[in-house]
Specification:
The complex is a heterodimer of chains A (427) and B (358). By secondary structure, chain A is α/β, with parallel strands linked by helices. Helix content of chain A is 44%, strand content 13%. Chain A is built from 15 helices and 15 strands. Chain A is globular. Chain B is mainly α. Chain B contains 16 helices and four strands. Chain B starts with 12 loop residues before the first helix and ends in a 5-residue tail after the last helix. The chains are: A alpha/beta (427), B mainly alpha (358). At the A-B interface, helix 1, strand 4, helix 3 and helix 4 of A face helix 4, strand 4, helix 12, helix 14 and helix 15 of B.
Chain lengths: 427, 358
């Protein structure tokens, strides 16, 4: 009995490994739990972009792209299990879509030699390519986001934040704590007072935090939330009648799922974003012909055009461009993870290229290098229009404050290098 | 008659009271150990280590610890996650403060620190028991996680609040950090698991264990026959927390390599370990291992069957997996409220007589 069970386990585990062929980009997704609503859309966007490439162009460089999915439930232990179960299948690059899992995987991918792309999340100082050889976080990171938001607040306040108070409501995890250091520096520079208000994950319960906000009446509230926490925060803000246009979220607090539960009360809520929104792009014509109408859309195509879907699609786009670049450099369509890394390092996405892909102005132009693994870091601000049920972009791309960010990134990367005996490269 | 005891005679009390009185059991035990130490380290892959065996061994240690408290001592605890966090953070602070001392010593010291913390939070058990004590230990769970989140000293003032295991070696082999080989990880956890199981077995059948069980079964009667409730209860908390602290230390330093208090050591961890103890069987060493295997290996197995073999969507598989595991827990507890250990014991009884029922 025991033996037979062990044999069954062994057989099942062997069967789980996909065939060694094509280009494998594992999709560590989460479609369940308190973050599932957002995770679902992202994973669908990620899959659909590659499905389109496979259907329309026959893959990249003639090689089809496989995206085997593995459910992490935003849980680090399951994330490790997913990483281990997929890395043997020739995984080219990982996009774990969770800051906690990213922290877990940074040492592992570095020792296994598999690149990891963490667009808009993960460890900010991974932008320093001289220390983080295998980790990339273009087009923007959390510190860029914090800086872009503060720049927008400067614009709204006529260029002066002196004497203002800004509250940071954050997910009490690595993700939410990331911007604190930057915001502290920025508060010194611009003279505003920063109040830190942590919310314990998953974050449905925020009554006391918003009571504090009602009492202290900060001029602006910055929200670093994720999943069910965003819905709760926006609903609570509406309950205390906090002016919605003064509540501004990071890009992960900027999806339809976050604002829709609050209904009309969420009108005017703002969030940062590093990619375009809506479906006014020629790209969607192709997507409709080759994926949606062919019934090949992931999850039935119910989320196409939503903010999180677009972000997942954008992540896939960056990976696909990286693969293309890697194939060019290696001179063969069958690339290895190491060649993929070189491809990402040499990656350049121009405005012309975005237009060629049918997504003009959807993402910012950026160029990576050995030193710079993070791109230009620009972000836009979008605002929710509750009556039209649409996000509207209200700014152009805003350049973050590099003179504050760069020293912080270097310092953090140096500390990591010292802790782990890494010799900085790129000289 | 698969289980033969004909001819298995005992001529001394010593023989009669050994852990495995049946020769077949004894042989099974040695064969298991031989395979665990002599075969698996040479064939283990990263996947088997990181997804199956290492978490199984670590959770088995945690379940052993909790079983001493709940199963043998009768003191209900919901603070397991918090105590595991103490073990993890203690290892982190010790190994970053004294890098020249071996990590294995730090892990043991972390167990000691957790034991002290456990005794402190166990003090209410002198006044309250049952559900009331469960709530008091639940407070420990929330307080400890909050503390490790709140005080930056515990995570060395890192920007993200994460703790990361530094690379450490033992006899020239890397045992912690990303460069650790699968077999090194597995062996470290195996040595701790086997050693601690041996300690637990011998403690529970000696004086200490008898005192714990006396308190568990009827505290007033135990006091009358001369068991000091203070020392019995406190020693149960101390030993249990020591085990749980070591499990937390291994979880962080050997298995995960990085951890975050609220995510890795949240209340769900307390429940998970408590379920392992209940499903495995209260007051049983084997049960702790069986319970850990049930709750660690079964979900991975189901995931691989549903997604890998049947090709189901991952979200559907994840939900079905929860339902199957939940249903199995209910089923097992209805069929055998004393857990897998009792089920195994009954199976053995039946096998001794098989094929003749009476």
């Amino acid at each position: 009995m025991k033996l037979r069970f062990a044999a069954a386990v062994a057989a099942a585990m062997m069967a789980a490994a996909p065939a060694l062929a094509d280009l494998t980009v594992p999709n560590l997704s989460y479609r369940t739990g308190p973050y599932g609503a957002n995770g679902n859309q992202y994973a669908d966007g990620f899959n659909d972009y590659f499905t389109l490439l496979n259907e329309r162009d026959g893959g990249i460089g003639g090689q089809r792209v496989l995206t085997p999915e593995c459910e992490t439930a935003y849980n680090t232990e399951k994330g490790v299990e997913c990483y281990e179960s997929t890395k043997g299948s020739g995984a080219l690059v990982y996009n774990p879509f969770s800051t906690g899992i990213t922290y877990q995987l940074i040492p592992k991918v570095s020792s296994d030699g598999i690149p990891m792309l963490t667009p808009g999340y993960g460890r900010t100082s991974a932008k320093d390519g001289s220390v983080f050889q295998w980790v990339f976080n273009p087009p923007a990171n959390y510190w860029d986001g914090a800086s872009v938001i503060v720049k927008h607040l400067l614009d709204v306040n006529g260029g002066d934040l002196n004497g203002k108070t800004i509250a940071l409501v954050y997910h009490n995890s690595a993700f939410g704590k990331e911007p604190i250091r930057t915001l502290e520096e920025l508060s010194k520079k611009h003279g505003f007072t920063l109040t830190q208000i942590p919310v314990d994950p998953p974050g449905q319960e925020q009554k006391s935090q918003w009571l504090q906000i009602r009492r202290e009446k900060p001029d602006h509230v910055i929200l670093y939330g994720w999943g069910v926490m965003n819905q709760a925060a926006i609903q609570e803000a509406a309950n205390i009648r906090y002016p919605m246009e003064n509540l501004i979220g990071i890009w992960w607090a900027g999806g339809e799922v976050d604002v829709e539960p609050a209904g009309a009360a969420a009108n005017g809520y703002k969030s940062a974003t590093f990619n375009g929104v809506g479906m006014d792009y020629p790209f969607y014509g192709d997507l409709k012909t080759h994926v949606l109408d062919a019934n090949k859309a992931s999850g039935g195509g119910q989320h196409v055009g939503k903010a999180m879907y677009s972000r997942g699609m954008y992540a896939a786009l960056v990976i696909a461009e990286g693969i293309k670049k890697a194939q060019e450099l290696a001179g063969t369509p069958e690339i290895t993870p190491a060649q993929m890394r070189d491809g990402l390092e040499a990656l350049e996405i121009t405005e012309a290229r975005m237009a060629e892909l049918g997504l003009p102005g959807f993402g910012q132009p950026f160029q990576l290098s050995c030193q710079n693994h993070g791109g230009s870091g620009m972000g836009m601000i979008q605002q929710w229009d509750a009556s039209a049920k649409q996000w509207k972009l209200i700014t152009e791309f805003i350049q973050p404050d590099e003179e504050v960010l760069q020293p912080l990134i270097t310092a953090d990367a140096q500390a990591f290098a010292a802790e782990n005996n890494i010799q900085p490269r790129c000289n | 008659m698969l289980y033969r005891e004909a001819g298995d005679f005992k001529t001394s009390y010593r023989d009669d009271s050994q852990t495995f009185p049946l020769k077949l059991d004894r042989m099974g035990y040695w064969v298991t150990l031989a395979v665990a130490f002599g075969v698996i380290p040479f064939v283990i892959t990263d996947y088997w280590a990181n997804a199956v065996l290492v978490p199984f061994l670590i959770y088995a240690i945690a379940a052993l610890g909790l079983n001493i408290l709940v199963g043998y001592g009768g003191q209900v605890s919901l603070g397991t996650g918090g105590f595991m966090a103490v073990g993890a953070y203690a290892t982190y602070k010790l190994s970053t403060s004294f890098p020249e001392i071996s990590l294995l010593i730090h892990i043991l010291l972390a167990g000691g620190i957790t034991a002290a913390v456990g005794v402190f939070f166990g003090l209410p058990s002198l006044r309250i028991k049952g559900f009331y004590l469960a709530v008091a230990t639940l407070a420990a769970q929330f307080f400890l996680v909050w503390l490790f989140n709140k005080v930056p000293w515990f995570y060395n003032y890192s920007a993200s609040g994460q703790i990361t295991a530094p690379e450490r070696t033992f006899l020239g082999y890397v045992i912690s950090g990303p460069a650790t080989s699968a077999s090194a990880k597995y062996l470290v956890c195996l040595v701790f698991a086997v050693g601690l199981a041996w300690v637990a077995r011998n403690l529970t059948r000696g004086t200490a264990g008898r005192k714990w069980m006396a308190i568990r079964d009827m505290d007033i009667a135990a006091e009358i026959i001369g068991v000091n409730p203070l020392t019995a209860k406190m020693s149960a908390f101390a030993v249990s927390s020591f085990f749980i602290g070591i499990a937390g230390a291994l979880l962080f330093s050997i298995y995960l390599g990085a951890a975050e208090a609220s995510e890795t050591f949240g209340i769900t961890k307390s429940f998970l370990v408590l379920f392992m103890v209940i499903i495995g069987g209260l007051g049983s060493i084997f049960g702790s291992f069986a319970g850990a295997a049930f709750l660690v290996v079964l979900p991975v197995f189901l995931k691989n069957v549903l997604v890998g073999a049947f090709g189901w969507p991952t979200d559907l598989a994840a939900h079905i997996e929860l339902m199957i595991v939940g249903a199995l827990i209910v089923f097992f507890l209805i069929v055998e409220p004393h857990g897998l250990a009792q089920l195994w014991r009954l199976t053995k009884e039946k096998l001794r007589l098989w094929p003749f029922p009476h």
